[in-house]
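re: that chain from earlier
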Amino acid sequence: MHALMTVKAFMQSYDRDILDLQDDPSSYIEVIEGELEACYPMAHAFDNKGNKVWSIGVLREHLSIMGEPLWENEQLAI
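^ sequence. v structure.
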């Protein structure tokens, strides 16, 4: 079983500062989701709220992020 997160939850946990630097964080998240869908078309699922979720490994690889979360996030879906 893989741990899954939304792009927003991942960014808030692993690289919150990048969202703070964006003029429109929602648009930035949409761009990242579009890239993920293009690169990994079958790699997403939906959580119980209907949000797209991705494997943390896929998110780390795509965004070139190493290491563990810098901030805790309670939106982790399994």
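Residues 4-63 form one domain.
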